[in-house]
Every structure is written in structure tokens, then in C-alpha cells.
Amino acid sequence: MFSKTCEYAIRALIFIAQKTKDGDRIGIKEIAKGIDSPEHFIAKILQDLSKKGILQSAKGPTGGFYLDKASRKQSLASIVRAVDGDKIFQGCGLGLKQCSETKPCPIHHEFKKVRKDLLQILENAKVGALTDALENSMVFLKR
């Protein structure tokens, strides 16, 4: 459903939110290990998200990635938009360019509801709020 880049971005941001809630910063090696991702790939993703203001980073010996208060309140939908754009929320379920209300694809009306539900789920899921279940081992981010 999401691109691999988007999947890693979401997992990384939830992991960073958990590990930096007390003001700490976390490095790429620990993030990659914590979410079971290739180090160079997650580094590239996080650098891009940092440039877009989705998360914060600091250089130097005490540097690393972290989320400030505002970033913790971001929805998963905002991350999806930053990485994959709006296509998943607006695009055709079959990938057709001309799919619309007047010229629907075979699954247009059913997929419209799926898109709406997915958007609502992701808008309501805030990065910082997802860390509690993670800390209580009720959910996980690693295979």
C-alpha cells in the first residue's frame, strides 16, 4: 500500500518518538537496528524528512535525530504525504489516470470508501501517541 520508503519513514518516526521523549537524541545506527532497516536507506529518508521539517536533527558528538513537541503531534497522514504524496488518498485503486465520478473504474466506488477510511485512520494516528503501546510491548516495529 505504501512505498518501502514510506513504511520505513513511519516506523522510524515512531521509534524516534519513543526513544527521544525525554529530550535525548538518537543516531542512525540505533534507528536502523531498532526498526530492522538498511542503515544507508534510513539515513537518506531521515535527512529528507528533516529538511521538510517533519523531524529535527543535530550535528556533533551529542547529535542525532529527535522529535520536538510539535513534531510528536503530527499525524501519520502528514508523513505519508511528505514521502509518497497524496496519491493514496486521491488516486484510482487500479492506477488509472482517467478514473473519476463520471468515468469510474470497476472498483471506483468501493475504493473511494477505503481511501476515506484510510485517511481518517492516518489523520487520527499521531506519532507521539503511538509510543505508549510500543513501550508496553503491545505492538512492535521490527520483524
TrEMBL record:
Transmembrane segments: none annotated. Gene3D superfamilies: Winged helix-like DNA-binding domain superfamily/Winged helix DNA-binding domain. This is Rrf2 family transcriptional regulator.
